[in-house]
Amino acid sequence: MARIPAPVAAVRTAVRRGLADLPSDALLLVACSGGADSLALASAAQFLNQQGSFSRVGLVTVDHGLQEGSDRRARSVAAWARDAGFDPVRIETVSVAGLPGGPEAAARTARYEALSAAATELGAAAVLLGHTRDDQAETVLLALARGAGPRGLSGMPGRRGVFRRPMLDVARADTRKACAALGLAPWEDPHNSDPAYARSRVRASVLPVLVDALGPAVVSNLARTASLVAADSEALDELAAAAMVSASVPEGLSVPVLAGLAAAIRSRVLHRWARELGAPGGALAYRHVVAMDALITQWHGQGPVFLPDGIVVGRRADRLVRVVPAHIK
């Protein structure tokens, strides 16, 4: 028997481990753009299907309509998938018009909505995403540049809802080598090398400089940092959930209870409460949480705090409450 090339084995092993808890009759959907990462992922998932680990593996490719010929690319990926035995195979065409954020954020929102809808419609147990160790390292660097807290530095989770990223411990170079060994011809997304996008600049310029200065282990170390911070953040979130229950009073939160919490727990409680009031997570910033915290720790009779989406909170005696705008003095 021919020896399996090491990069192919690395991808297959990672995918098998990442899906080990799923039943063999679960429907898996691979999100595939046609790039090296998602092609290597799709090939590994189909290998597991052929080995009997999973009996149902489908594929979804998303056409964002942002590039000329994107529809042809989507049809090409779908044709390859059908020939390779994927079933079902779907092309999801989306529009980014009117979505918040820049082109990257809008495309990401539209893509995840389409993938989530396809999973629900088809009854999929998991949607597999082809993010690699290098993607995770880039995510950590971008989070550092934004001054993000633990949530940002946690990077991309291996699992969130229906989505799974089984290749976060696989190097991007290995997905390319795996494709070459398997005779797959990846599509090169021009956005990945477009300096207009922050991630592209990190990929092309920032990370290579760090590797040159600190050695190739910097990529693995950044990805490991995300895993360590994610574990700590999960523990703090659990403590914050319990503290939220303790601090809850009619119509708001108890200031004495909040004041007795560690700062890391209190900030999470305030963030969670603001979300429950309706503040969108993407717009809720560090400054909003700091301003709410000042109502507890630096109280001198100041006015209310204005959160995104017109939500206003203030202090009334020993409680933090939502303030009706007409009552603001």
Automatic annotation (TrEMBL):
Instruction: Please name the InterPro entries in this protein's record.
Output: Rossmann-like_a/b/a_fold, TilS/TtcA_N, tRNA_Ile_lys_synt, tRNA_Ile_lys_synt_N, tRNA_Ile_lys_synt_subst-bd
Top-level taxon of the source organism: Bacteria
Q: Where in the cell is it found?
A: Cytoplasm
| Record keyword tRNA processing present | yes
EC number of the protein: 6.3.4.19
Q: Report the enzyme's class at the first EC level.
A: ligase
GO-annotated biological processes: tRNA modification
Q: Which reaction does it catalyse?
A: cytidine(34) in tRNA(Ile2) + L-lysine + ATP = lysidine(34) in tRNA(Ile2) + AMP + diphosphate + H(+)
- Locate the residues binding ATP: S33, G34, G35, A36, D37, S38
The reply to whether Calcium figures as a keyword in the UniProt entry is no
Task: Give the primary localization class.
Answer: cytoplasm
Gene Ontology CC terms = cytoplasm
Its Gene Ontology molecular function terms?
ATP binding; tRNA(Ile)-lysidine synthase activity
- Which residues are in the tRNA(Ile)-lysidine synthase substrate-binding domain? 253-320
Q: Which UniProt keywords apply?
A: ATP-binding, Cytoplasm, Ligase, Nucleotide-binding, tRNA processing
Q: Could you tell me which NCBIfam families the record lists for this protein?
A: lysidine_TilS_N
Family to which the UniProt record says this protein belongs:
Belongs to the tRNA(Ile)-lysidine synthase family.
Q: What does this gene product do?
A: Ligates lysine onto the cytidine present at position 34 of the AUA codon-specific tRNA(Ile) that contains the anticodon CAU, in an ATP-dependent manner. Cytidine is converted to lysidine, thus changing the amino acid specificity of the tRNA from methionine to isoleucine.
Query: Would you tell me the protein name for this molecule?
Result: tRNA(Ile)-lysidine synthase
